[in-house]
Structures are given as structure tokens and as C-alpha cells.
Amino acid sequence: MGAAFLITLREGLEAALILSILLAYLRLIDRMDRARTIWLGAAAAAVVSLIVGTIIFGVGAEFEGTAEEVFEGLVSLTAVGVLTWMVFWMRRQGARMRTDLQERVDSALVGGGLALAGLAFAVVVREGIETALFVFAAAKATAVESGGASEQLLGATLGLVAAGAIGALLYRGAVTLNIRAFFKITGALILVVAAGLLAFSVHELQEAGWLPFLTAQAYDTSAALPHDSGLGAILHALIGYNATPSVLEVVAWAGYLIVTGTLYLRRQPALVSSAAVAPDGSREP
Question: What is the pTM of this model?
Fold first, then answer.
């Protein structure tokens, strides 16, 4: 539940921030008559994201044996790539998010209602499809039994609800949030989740015979900390902990964290701040 909650909380809050910036700018230029168009575009994006998520889970359920291992391994590997890109994209582009969105709103207003709806759809559907991909990968990587996937879906739902509530409160000015600190902390945590997904991907592809090297068991901590009960199960759900990993799984997990962690902890440009979602849109990040 924990991995899906963290991912959807971050993705959902990012989408909520984008919508808040769009609506705040419309209020600033006195064009709130176009707000309904933004909501329609966002709603359409949510529907498309739900359909894509259903398809991903449906297709995954059709595979068995080696085909299932390959599919889950490749989807998880894709999720790792997108997660990594997402974290570093926000690190690099966050400071310019508000300005870029406002410029796109100006262009969309010239193009009419359909263009503005298309803008809202485009920026939200990306978050939605990414979320669907991540939740599937997290559900497969951290599920130790049939109930594991449903727990991750519950965590994803709670994450989206929390993100929506925080986004609404930010827009209304009811709460303040250090967005830079939020994305910095969740970004670091998501890299740990991504490392677990990478190890799971390696495990599945090794099971399928696609990575027939370094297959020896690295260690066995199942006696002290099994991954299907107690604290081990919690770690399994949060970061994909495995009590009996192969050597390649450990190398992939550690190597990913060393490389991405080193890059992530370097001095970063300023991210979008909580001021970017002020209702009057009058403050710069």
C-alpha cells in the first residue's frame, strides 16, 4: 500500500498544482468563464487514464508463466525509467512550470475553448497514465499474495484523494505547503521505490531466462526477516524488499541508488513554490 500511496500522492499533487496554476491564472486575467473548460479537459484525462490503467491490469492478467514474468518485468522496467525521468524533470523544470503554463494558457485562449480543454487534458493525462503504470508495477512488485494487489490499489486511491484534498486547500489558500521541500523529499523516496521496482524487474526477467547471469542467491534473511510477514512484509510493500535476492538484483538495486542518489543530491535549481498556486496568482515562485 505504501509505495502506491506515495507515488499517487506525488503524481496527484503535481496534477492538482498544474490545475491550480491554470485556474489561478484565469482568475488573474479575469477569464474565469473558461474555468469549466479546464475542468472538462481534466475530467476527460481522468477517464482516459482510468481506461489505460484497466487495460494494463487486464492485459497483465491474461499472461501466464514465462509470458507473465516477461510482461511484468518489462512493465516494471518501463516504470523505473519513467519514475526516474519524472523525478529529475521536476528537479530541473519545476522553477519554470508556472511561467510555461501561463504562456500556454495565453495561446490556448486565442485558439478557443477546445484548445484550452486540450491543454488541461494534455498536462493531466500524462500524470494519469504514469500513475496507472506505476500502480501496476508497484502492485506486482510488492504483492506477496492475492490480496497484495488490492492493497496497492487501495493505497493508490487514498493517495489520489489526499492529493486532491491538498490541492483544493492550496488553491483556496486554506493551507500553505513548502512545495519545494515536498517534491525534494518525495523525489528521494520515489527513487528508493524505483530501486525496488528495478530489482523486481530483474527478478522477473531472470525467472523468464532473459538475464541468465549473476543468478546465484546473494543472501538469505528469510529466517530473521521474511518478506511475507511482519516487518519484512511492510518493507516489501514499501520498497520491494526481498529476503532471497539474486546477485544481479542486489547489484541493480544498489547501483541504481548510488547513481541516481548521487545525481539527485547535487545542488538543485529552485522548484515551483507554494506561491505558484496562490488564488490571486500574483506571486512568482
Answer: 0.77
